[in-house]
Amino acid sequence: MAEHTRVLIVGSGPAGLTAAIYSARAQLRPIVIEGEPSSTTDQPGGQLMLTTDVENFPGFPEAISGPDLMVKMRDQAARFGADLRVEKVHKLDTTTRPFRAWLGGDVEPSITADAVILATGARSLMLNVPGEERYLSHGLSTCATCDGFFFRGQDIAVIGGGDSALEEALFLTRFASSVTVIHRRDSLRASKIMQERAFAHEKIRFEWNTQVTEIIGDDNVVGIKVRGTISEEERVLLVTGVFVAIGHVPNTTLVTDQVDLEHNGYVRTTMGSFTNIDGLFAAGDVQDDVYRQAVTSAGSGCIAAIDAERWLEAQGI
Ligand code: NAP
Predict the structure, then answer these.
(1) Number of C-beta neighbours around residue 133 at 10 A
(2) pLDDT means per 10 residues in the chain (317 residues)?
(3) What are the φ and ψ backbone dihedral angles of 19, each rounded to 5 degrees?
(4) What residue ranges line ligand 1, CB within 6 angstroms?
(5) Is this prediction's pTM over 0.90?
(6) Under CATH, domain 132-244 is a member of which superfamily?
(7) CATH of domain 3-124+248-315
């Protein structure tokens, strides 16, 4: 027999845990399925578990590590009675009411829910080259806004040729001595205006037709091995920071074919956190391809919890 909850929250990054804090304080006793520790894409705590110091989350003037921040959010949700579970939803059915969720390898649905807040986040696309996993948070980052400040006075490489790569490169010029954009082709995918800004910047230079083959270092990054995509020449570029900016993908597997998505695969939300399915709300990076910050994600988790609470009340559930 499936267990029933009024609010099921899937995901435990800033969006999921903030939704949990608000739902729990509204006496909805939410169940939060946090994700699996072994996974690099849906681990409990989300992407902040992969970062070092967070210096831009309000309330922590001395900075706080990403994992510590998530522990605090989790403790706060638990304190108000959120039922947090380190498990994974492997199937979600929003075509029936109440919604049904399957955990782990269960054959029968484990949980039924009147409302679901989807906060499964997004993940950065990675290069999948040797050294990348080893140096993540040790000189290699996927977020200039989060980590750029740590690279003051250093030589940095940004990988990618889209708007994200140029936005990261331009942002990093505030801190870095030099920023080298490494792109696998000889023309950029980024918008013209971003290209013009990047080309005009004295600290930014480009390595065209170049692919990264390895991240190298000691305790931290000291350089990258690159190969020409046309010349096939191999070289080492000495940089102490590497920012991978080759795109993100939202974690929407659970709802693909059920909910309306934007053209780029993000969940479409309107009026806050409402999706096209009554009772299904979305918060955080799974529906945000623009801001992608811990604080905006937390804010959208708050919105989703309030939307869900009011929706339940309006339904008389
Ligand atoms: P994107 O437009 O898909 O660009 C990804 C870039 O990474 C491409 O240049 C691609 O090369 C390169 N790339 C992909 N896989 C690679 C690999 N394995 N090795 C090396 N290079 C690889 O992604 P995005 O830049 O994140 O932008 C996503 C969307 O958000 C776009 O619509 C963008 O306009 C928008 N966005 C807008 C802004 C803004 O307006 N300020 C800022 C950020 C993002 P190829 O070009 O060869 O495919």
Answers:
(1) 12
(2) 96 98 98 82 78 86 94 98 96 97 89 98 94 95 90 98 94 97 97 97 98 98 98 97 95 96 97 97 96 95 98 95
(3) -60, -40
(4) 127, 159-165, 167, 184-185, 189, 246-248, 289
(5) no
(6) FAD/NAD(P)-binding domain (3.50.50.60)
(7) 3.50.50.60
